[in-house]
Amino acid sequence: MTLTLDEIRALPKVALHDHLDGGLRPQTVLELAAEAGHELPAQDAEALGDWFYEAADSGSLVRYLETFDHTVAVMQTADALRRVAREFVLDQAADGVVYAEARWAPEQHLRQGLSPEQAVRAVADGLAEGEAEVAAQGRTVVARQIVTGMRHADRSAEIARLAVAHRDSVCGYDIAGAEDGFPPSRHLEAFDVLKRASARWTVHAGEAAGLDSLWEAVHLAGAQRLGHGVRIVEDVTLAEDGTRHLGPLAAFVRDTGIPLEVCPSSNLQTGIASTIEEHPVGLLVDLGFAVTVSCDNRLMSRTTLSRELALCCEAFDWDLEQLEVLQLTALDHAFLPLPDRARLLEQVVLPGFAG
Description:
Belongs to the metallo-dependent hydrolases superfamily. Adenosine and AMP deaminases family. Its cofactor is Zn(2+). The longest helix has 21 residues. The chain is built from 16 helices and ten strands. The relative contact order is 0.14. It is an alpha/beta fold and about 350 residues long. The chain is about 50% helix and about 15% strand. Helix 2 crosses helix 3 and helix 8 packs parallel to helix 9. It has a four-stranded parallel β-sheet with strand order 1-2-3-4, sandwiched between helices. Strands 5-6-9-10 form a four-stranded parallel β-sheet.
């Protein structure tokens, strides 16, 4: 029997791929825009939420990314960043998430004079405030930030150095933005910085571009996780006898356990598949890939992690055991020190699935 949304919400969950600037509350966007003097396409929270969803629901990654013009515009001060980060934690905890990584690009938040260091500290403060507020309610949530270099820009190495310099509050690094035409090989200096510092990093790949992008992410950038990664199925063929054959790249990703940060609803909006039933995540799980499920952008996809998992349960007949495997996989690959992961596992995740 399919698990209900409420039953899934009650389970402890791990969110690895969630953009800070893609998860604002519509009311928060309105209030921050009023303070900043930024014009929005709608003037009440419900209509604004509808606009973000409909604008993102175009089938184009480029159009999808345009919605961020408004959220980034209202996140240009330390107070705004701190508020958005705090609410990120509260909203994740309300959905039953016990560990969440918030990724964002500091270089996009400097228009009003913040330095990258000040911006990172503001987000760190907001995440800590959210954790403390949740703890005061007797619940557990751990939140960390991933800093992102924009792949169409030239600051990726600088942001990598920022991640290393602030590794006490920054758990990892990412490159994001328009993937097609901006391959990981443009940012090898950044990945060299990270490798030399023994840092942690993930790479957006296999969303708007295919196997070439994934190959570079894995073999040139040394990705420890793949953001989305779902187009790895282009290296999987169906034989006449109905069996699946993995090409060399797909086999390497599966066999070495490089985790995929899959975001189903977001992928539907950017054209990966037409329906959730056609989404590659079901096949990837069946083939034994290290699959994790996240939201990508909760505002633009009007979703939560519980909703993403509920959609997949209905489409692929996932049961409680499969959901537990997904959360254990995500926690195992979280950019969190091993002792902290072990504590979450023993104190929160396993007891939560045991009922």
